[in-house]
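Per reviewer request, we include the raw input and output of the structure prediction for the construct analysed in the revised manuscript.
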Amino acid sequence: MIITSSASLLLLAASVAPAASFVPQKVASDNVFLKKKPVFSETVVQVHAADADVVDLGEFKAKSFKRDEPPEINPLPEVFAGIGLPGGEVEPPRINNTFTNVQVDRYGAQALPLILGTLPGKPKTEGSLEAARNIAIRLNKYAVDIPDPQAYKFFGNGEMGPILRMLLKTNPFFAPALTELPDGGFELKTFDPEGGPSATLYQTILSTLNGVGHRVNIQFDKDMESITNWEMYDDVQGNDMKKCDVDLNTASSSAIYNCFFFASCIHATIHVLHYLYTAAFQAASEDFPEMNQWANDYAKNIPWKYQQVGKLLLTADPQNQLAIITGGSGLGSSDFVRPILKKMLQSWGMKPTAEGFYMENMMNLPKDKVGGKNGVVLEEFMKHYELVSPFAKEASDALKKINPKKFAAAEKKLGRYLSRCGEFTSSLSTIEQWIEMMAVTGAMHGGTLSYTRTMAMPEVLRWRNFVSPAWDFPDAFLLFSALGTIVGVDDDRHVMTDCDSGSPYADLLQDVLEKYNNKTTRMKREYQEKLVKEKDFNDYGWIKSDYCLDDFDGKQLTIATYV
């Protein structure tokens, strides 16, 4: 097995988990959700059986195929059974990103003994995660460009309602959870209290989440400026909880946890998509040096991040209860979520454009509510989104002009390679589509650097095991892993960068990259200058700064899922 030292740290952390941490226990504690004395089962309660066929995630048919011989070089285990690199040919080079991995190693060396060694057993108090937060702030140098770092809330101000609203309004992972209400408002609807089927991808994914207090619906006004109503339902006893039974801060913190789980599922699946796509781009360009140079820059760290997904997030090992997405002691789901995410990946493969991937596959809202002058959500994200298609066309045209014959051969090989990735259903046939997909998913991936901080908020992390008054080892492992994923942002490895390679790209390609790098840099600078002057900057800048210049509060619209 080939594995980086940063991945080894996470696997080591999982390996030192005390066996007792997996034994369900009766816990006596006050529960804000129930006026009656709580009754908790000693076994895990599966609230809903996930039904992967409830939501139409795009029409596709699973291919019947005969598996070829595995690729040369030890193939990585498949995250989704039946989907992997084509057999019978050499796997493209696995390229390391030394800078990122050194940073992650530094984080692990400091955080592993502090978080895993001292947090379990401590009460879930307001300041109990402060030491872990400080490690992230220091290593990532969050405070360097912040005008007043003493006043700046790097991990939020504790006001869960406004934090939830802001994340839903600005973050491309959270916004797809929203639906529109008949009166023009919006709703974050986890489930139908009338017992109807899951109507959205968000509901379908959340139906696999076990535990107390995850069934929460929250409504917003038509401008997403205020919360108008909320309701919670107890998962164990099924008691109907009305607005008067729970305060907004509590309901919102549960909703943030739910959205974190939803976003983590999408994030992990993007890692799988990038593993297939970057390997295909490398293989397709092996006889086209000017394109291959660019392909190798995209591929840095991708195989190892894919490996971590299979080991730490979506593991097929039933003994690994710490797996963050599929483990019962992770975020609280199970392997029921895997077929849902596999189907989602397939739907992405069948619509390989920015529009197809994001607006058609992910969003529930009409286009006039998203971005633009009159839009309500994702105003800044959509400015970058709108550059994706012209960027992809011009970059593709540049590669074609460099060598038309080699370009045609590479394009043909690219489509063929992706059509041979086992059961993966891909309709991608052009280099332009590939560039477009990598740009939109890269810009989306940048949103992880803000929302992941919510796991370092006691109000949110407590929902992993709400009934316990003290942190346990799985809590500590989740916190350690979450903060580890936002370490290692590498300067200039952003979407549409012009200078990630050790030497300039071919002139025609370099010209396009410089053009769009200048555009996006200007957009980020202007946005940053405006943002720092906003009256709520110190409270919510940690969310809004996703669209600032590289490294501002540790942020970046990443070129790919390498962090």
